[in-house]
Amino acid sequence: MFTSYERLEKRSGKKGVDRPEYLKELVHEFTTSEHLASREQVLANLVNFAYDPINYPWLRKLKVIDIFLDQLTEGTATLRDFAAAGLCNLALDQENKAYILRQGGVELLLSVSHSVFSLP
């Protein structure tokens, strides 16, 4: 379900969780963790946040698109799957889509899909 700023405030209260700060902490944890299971869990959380358009500006500012793009070529199979899902979620936004296209994201996604589906 998509969120509004009013709904965020109602759910977390005026002194509740600061969404941009929480996302920043997730990105920091992903980039500094040496444990694969932790990285997979954090990336899955970022993919879930990428589902809601209210998070797009924060995710752009934190360069989460670049994290997803990097994981398509550097990550494990699980990280690649999560990264592909995150890019698909973010591509609904025109600004995100343009950035993904400029960075060669479609080609990266195609190369991953060929290895996953063993296309001829």
Automatic annotation (TrEMBL):
Coiled coil: none annotated. PANTHER family: ARMADILLO REPEAT-CONTAINING PROTEIN 7. This is Armadillo repeat-containing protein 7. InterPro entries: ARM-like, ARM-type_fold, ARMC7. It comes from Penaeus vannamei. It comes from the Eukaryota.
